[in-house]
Amino acid sequence: MKQIEQMPSERVSIRDVFGVDSDLCVNAFKERGEYVPKIDPNYCFDPEVTLAILAGFTSNRRTLIQGTHGTGKSSHIEQVAARLNWPCLRINLDGHLSRLDFIGKDSIVIKDGLQVTEFKEGILPQSIQQPIALVLDEYDAGRPDVMFVIQQLLEQDGKYTSLEQNRVITPHPFFRLFATCNTLGLGNFSGMYSGTQVLNHSQLDRWNIIATLNYLDPSHEAKIILSKHPEFDTESGRHLVDQMIATAGLTRNGFMAGDLSTVMSPRTVITWAENIRIFGDVATAFRLSFVNRCDEEEKALVNEYFFRCFGDP
User: Fold this and answer.
1) If we measure between CA atoms, which residue out of 43, 20, 26 comes closest to residue 224?
2) Into which EC class is this enzyme placed (predicted)?
3) To 5 degrees, how large is the angle CA 61–CA 167–CA 7?
4) Is the pLDDT at 189 greater than 50, yes or no?
5) How far apart are CA 290 and CA 262, in angstroms?
6) Collapsing DSSP states into helix, strand and coil, what is residue 147?
7) What sign for the dihedral angle of Cα 191, 196, 202, 204?
8) Boundary-marking domain end, from 159, 182, 212
9) pLDDT tens, 127-141?
10) Which range among 5-9, 16-20, 108-112, 243-247 has the greatest average pLDDT?
């Protein structure tokens, strides 16, 4: 990883930059580096989650964002970082990421024409020594050996003891740590998130801020879809989007009632809108975006939800 030399040297208004009703100002970098995410000019910020993420950036609070899939947890952190010009790096804690991948391992290198063994730092020790926001995606799917490495970073001083290098690494003053998860340490209790683990609650207790980003209210969800697909921003288009969101709401209610095993996330609704543009037909796009992923016995109920909102397909 390339060394980052910048430091946050500017103050920006939360109200002006994020549209959140607050008089607070936060630190930001003056220039954009290669690790700064690209700005999505149409991104819609959730006020409470935005304030939680900003607290993570400005006050060095370890911040965990929990919520259902497709609600934009990781992208929310990225878009805050993008507007602060704050370098940001995302790591997916899937079951294949080992402790050695995370912290580093011995590698054979050529020096002065000879093969020698040298320790190569992993992404974790490299990141904590730089002014960067490290985002741990799928935090509840991490392997136990990886999770206990993370626990060191959640202590008050956040120092990391590298046994491989026989040294203690003090985090950079502007290193920040975030994570996203679906289940908040409860495991795959709903059957929706295969591969997630029951998390150590003493570790969960070390996160300073836990924010929730679940299904949005219909007006906010419509605003996001229209920002992604401005071609629907007409009277008829807005009515269509409202119908789509109403259909998604019925699937979510059906899931909560135990009638469905699959649910439409906001990401699915956005995909549906994209497929309407491609195929030119609402019902066809609905089948290709959602219905075909449902259990055969549930498709009749899903089609009934569609009929309630759109009429006979």
Assistant:
1) 43
2) ligase
3) 40
4) no
5) 9
6) helix
7) negative
8) 212
9) 999 999 999 998 888
10) 243-247
